[in-house]
C-alpha cells in the first residue's frame, strides 16, 4: 500500500493485522475485532466508488481500493463466520449505511450503483443477508 493511495495520509489501521470473519451480510461482508474494537468493511459499488469503506466501532475511517497485505483476504471464503448475535451487534450501528457516503449524510442515489442499497436500508434490518 503506497502512502499516495490514502491521499498522503498515514493510518495506523493500514499496518494492523486483522483476522477477518464472515458476517453473512452482502454489503458488510467482513468484520474483525482488533485491539477490542470492531472493524467492518463495506463493499461499495466499484468502480463508481472506492471498493471498500472501513468502519471502526460504527464510525467511518476511510475508503480504500486495495487492502494492505497485512490485512490478508477480507473475503476469504474459508474464514470463520461470526456468531449470529455478534454479527447483529457489530452490524447494527451500520444499518443505515449500505449506500456509499450515507454515513456522512450524502448517500449515493445513482440508480445503477446504489439505489438498490437504499431500498435495503428501508427494509427490516436483522444484521444478516
What does this structure look like?
The model has no long low-confidence stretch (mean pLDDT 85). The protein is globular and about 35 Å long. The chain has helices at residues 84-91, 115-122, and strands spanning 21-22, 30-34, 37-43, 52-56, 59-64. The protein has 129 residues and is α+β, with helices and mostly antiparallel strands. Strands 1-2-3-4-5 form a five-stranded antiparallel sheet, covered by helices on one side. The longest helix has 8 residues, at 84-91.
Mean pLDDT: 85
- Widest sheet, order of strands: 1-2-3-4-5
Fraction of helical residues: 10-25%
How many helical stretches?
2
Query: Main sheet?
Result: 5 strands, antiparallel
pLDDT < 50 runs, ≥5 residues: none
User: In total, how many beta strands?
Assistant: 5
Output the helix-strand order.
EEEEEHH
Query: Whole-number radius of gyration?
Result: 14 Å
**Kindly, what is the distance between the CA atoms of the first and last residues, rounded to a whole number of angstroms?**
31 Å
- Beta-strand content bin: 15-25%
Structural class: alpha+beta
Query: What multimeric state do the chains show?
Result: single chain
Broad shape: globular
